[in-house]
Give the backbone structure.
Amino acid sequence: METQIRKINLKSLEYAKQLLLQGELVAFPTETVYGLGADARSDEAVGKIFQVKGRPSDNPLIVHVHKDFEIKNLVKDVSDYAQKLREAFLPGPLTLVYQSRGVVCSKVSCGLDTLAIRVPSHKGAQEFLKYVDIPVAAPSANLSKHVSPVSALHVNNDLDGKIPLILDGGNCSGGIESTVCDVTGPYPQILREGLVSREMIEEVVGFCNVYKPKEGERVRSPGMKYKHYSPACSTKLFESFEVEQAVECFLRLKHDGFRVVVLCEDKIKNNFTEDSVMNLGKTDYEMAANLYELLRRAEKMADVIVAVCPEKQDGIMAGVQNRLKKACAEIK
Ligand code: TXA
Ligand code: MG
């Protein structure tokens, strides 16, 4: 199959719609990462997502809709605080998990009785979702376990020849995936940290829990249990207080003849030789936006990535830390 990469305009949107309605897959941009979309009402189309990505069949998908879509047809909405969250953050990088009405095909939620819905704010994503006007099931548009794509080229690197169309909406500004938040209980519960932080949610509704699976418990967000976001080369991860050890490791690897890239925040970059550093940046938002772009660049030029966690842990950095650790930790 030939994969076309096309800018978003009326012609490409019409083509995208035809493809989706025929049960084909279409990759599209969002403000977080690129998504790999299928008609959420079609078993066959949704099945293709799992097949093309090599995704485990028990990891549910998020349904994407435009901002005027009536989500009441898809889910039961009982909590008042969910309405407050929608008003405060949508369209935007917050995915809410509701009780499902079982309208979309069961493969989307992998048999769970809940459904995750996301209303992306990216202009091209809104245009696409409005034009097709159906619920679009979409995971990140990478091969399973690889780093999520933040440009059309990244999608093409993973899925060339496997899907017919990539809608190109430029580079994603957010850089890490949406926050996934369960709103079926008495208070919101974050299942995956992301660009809407716990602190931001608490400001709107007072309290929010970050779910951590207990030993032996069935994982609430099945995606959490898998190895994720990994670059193709080896990685060595250090905590922010282990800069000395990171420098030692860097020097030893260089001495042994390995090609090494150091991934770290701006303020510690001078500990390493300039031409080896990929600078995550100074601010939280910069670091989120740069993370996947740099991991994808680094895996192409390095045998080993030496990554040092940024110091800040709260706000959206909780999500950045989570992704960096999943990408680089030796124990996944
Ligand atoms: O920013 C994003 O969320 C991107 C863009 C494309 O929208 N999408 C994305 O999808 O990251 P994916 O499939 O890579 O991650 C979806 C996450 C997984 O961890 C999955 O387990 C969780 O959402 N999830 C989906 N449906 C769920 C449900 N019903 N209950 C609990 N977790 C769910
Ligand atoms: Mg993903």
